[in-house]
Amino acid sequence: MKRFAAMQLKAHFGLSVSRACRLVSLPRSTYHYRTVKADNEAAVVQRIQTLIAAHKSWGYPMIHAILRREGLVQNHKRTWRIYQAQGLTLKLRKRTKRASVLRLELAEPTRPNERWAMDFMSDGLWNGRKFKVLTILDIFTKEGLAIEVDTSINGYRVTRVLDWLILTRGCPAVITTDNGPEFAGIVLDQWAYHHQVRHDFIKPGKPIQNAFIESFNGRLRHECLNQHYFSTLLEAKQIIEGWRLEYNTFRPHGSLNGLTPEAFKRAWEDHQKTPESQLTVCTV
Question: Considering the entire predicted model, what is its pTM?
Answer without folding.
Answer: 0.72
